[in-house]
Design brief:
Structural class: alpha+beta
Strand order of the largest sheet: 1-2-5
Number of strands: 5
Strand content: 25-35%
Order of helices and strands: HHEEEEEH
Largest sheet: 3 strands, antiparallel
Distance between the termini: 20 Å
Amino acid sequence: MNRAELVDLIAEKAELTKASASRALDALLDGVMNSLQKGDPVVIVNFGTFTVKQRAAREGRNPSTGEKIKINAAKVVGFKAGKALKEAVKDEVKA
């Protein structure tokens, strides 16, 4: 599903115009990004939790040459699915 399809779904489910649904999606995404930029987790009950994690510096290899390279430490976004999301996906796979 891409952004346009998600906006269409939000508009249909919430009985909004596509413009209103797009603004609502933008507000949600901005809120999630702002919270993560501050280092705060975003918990959406029954969906999941977004967190900022610190990835340690490590040594890697250039796949083309096999040469060793240093990969710097970095902050990355993590996501842990909530119980309801896990169950929804699990049930769909069985069908």
